[in-house]
Amino acid sequence: MRFQRNSLEPESSQHRSARRRTRGTGLHRWAAVVGVAVALVLSLVGVAVASVLGGSGTATRAAGPHSGGLAAAAAHRSAAGRSGRSGARAASPATGAPSRTRSTAGVRARALRTSCRSVAHVGDSTSVDLISSAYLPDPAQQLGARYADVGVKHFLVDASGGRSIVEAMPGQVNGYNVASGWWAQGYRGCWVFALGTNDTANVSVGSAVGLMARVDRMMSAAHGEPVMWVNTRTLLSGGPWAEANQQAWDNTLRQALARYPNMRIFNWAAVAQPGWFLSDGIHYNSVGCAARARAIANALARAFPRHGHSHGQIVR
User: Fold this and answer.
1) What are the Cα distances from residue 94, in Å, to 35, 47, 87, 91, 134?
2) Does residue 247 sit in helix, strand or coil?
3) Model-level pTM greater than 0.90?
4) What's the domain count of the chain?
5) pLDDT, tens digit, for every residue of 46-71?
6) Which of 43, 70, 243, 262 is the most core-located residue (most Cβ within 10 A)?
């Protein structure tokens, strides 16, 4: 399927304390302060890893499984503090249900199928936990399995904490360069961009690259192939990651729909429940991660269905 084209002010001491309490043991963290009005706690844990998910033909790369934000001087400052773990665990699928229930569920699942045989998913820290056994110990609940459920045969993912489209943490690749690299290596297929949480924070503290320019840059990396953006939400009332800033990003995505017939938006902001968030108001607990992985895959099937057309450019 092809189309033609027609971060940052300081965290509060309360947030920092909550992050310390919720982090697992053995994690390393350090702090950096930039300027007078800008300070960000950095958390960069783990090393970039590459693996193939068993039997799925899926290449997976997750940088820093519990990684956080970037502090940089002047106008280009990155965002996205990484919170710690939640005590909640995602429940495994129930077994022993009546046959009628299982049959009905199977019919519903079969009805959701996408025309996207290959998917390249570029995300930030809110995608890292969707491929992590720490948050989703049941592989069937992880993102790769959820995409497979709707008919995706080949799945690439690159998720990294603190990621934005433009700025990059030390040792990290920004979202645009990840997508451009895959294209240069010959990838052709559908794209899912789960980015923006950090971009809007960076813009709010003075980045010279505006919101629409960031969307344009990322869309250019897709070269007219089908793209689904996952929009953003936080529970924060102030600071670079405030929900008001996220709404500005989501409004920009909606405006971009007029420029890109190949673009769809999954309205995650309308789906996310407050109880799915960790105490930082940005990231998700295990229940939220399970819901997010399933919802993204199902939204892809609605955005680019195997048969027929999507009902509008914004899906839920």
Assistant:
1) 52, 35, 20, 8, 20
2) helix
3) no
4) 1
5) 222 222 233 334 445 554 433 333 32
6) 70
